[in-house]
Fold this sequence. Notes:
375 residues, globular, seven-stranded parallel beta sheet, Rossmann fold, D-inositol-3-phosphate glycosyltransferase activity, 13 strands, alpha/beta, 2 domains
Amino acid sequence: MRVVFEGAIFEMLPVGGIARYFTDIINRLPESITPIVLGPEEASLAFSNPHVTLSGVRTKAPLKMLRRFWRKSQHRLIDQQMDSLSGDLHHWTYYSGLCQREIRPGNVQNVITVYDFIHESFPELDPSGAHSYWKRKAIESADHICCISQTTHDDLCDRFPEVASRASVTMLGNSFVNVVAEPVTGQLANRPYVLFVGRRDNYKNFQTLWHAWQSVRSRVPELALVIVGPPIKRREARGLGMKEQEEGVIHLGGVSDPVLKGLYQHCRAFVFPSKEEGFGLPAVEAMESGAPVIASTCPALREVLGNVGHYFDAHDVDSLADLLVLADLERLPHCEKKLQLGLQRASELSWQKTVEQTVAAYRTLRGSSPIVRAA
């Protein structure tokens, strides 16, 4: 079976995040699946699967001021190139294609992956409505929809009940299983800390962790807050009331997987305070690394963590503060049992299972009758 992966995600985000998800899937596909990646010729794409064929297209306009019009002129050329690859299926990596092409029903069946409905839950993230528009159009045009968690699948079926029969769950996997941790050095080697990983805006709910940590500083003054993620800009710092050189705050920026695994292993707890997630890969990384996980009760984190998490309501600063104190004192309830359950849970979330579920969706789709849509 020839599967063409329409690689818009590699135009948007060459590494990490969703790009990492598709890279892991493509690298692990069985020999019965021939993957062809249609991607931006400007990106340096590399896959370990020896059966991958790369097909590059130009996605950068020669002049920035002409970008919008030039990209539209590329649509037909990209469509023609995609058709020439003779795929049995087209798996689109995002809700629109390269150069922001609309996903349309055609002679070749379309597969999309839906990650979450965060923009729909938090419309302030999508003031123009463009993101939700493209997602809705992609869902309506898809012959099959892969969902990265049961939570996302359930949300999809609630919002689009008419597509329930052509949706399936393809749970994400554990990318840290073969990562060798680097030991923690310097000031963190002998100081207790809680760890936050990722973006901090809006639904990520970092402010709840910040206020909880601030409230316990008099009780556990030695407990540091380690932040891995984007730079803290002045506007964000002002909104939090964070000083320029805040004692106890250690911001590390982006770090490598070995360094991050070492940070997970050495922390008193990893804190995941999100109001909503589609899956929550850092929770899997933390479990694999043997870190206690303090998490909000949002459905996706409940699904991923199960009985492993130490839970709090995402809006309850005091509950989180109490858990931070217990983490510092190494008295989180049933901690050793939860750590063992975490290692077991992380081992259950493998990329090989993700691939098997994805390939099963492909084969089911290839054996089904084409969807008849209203004219």
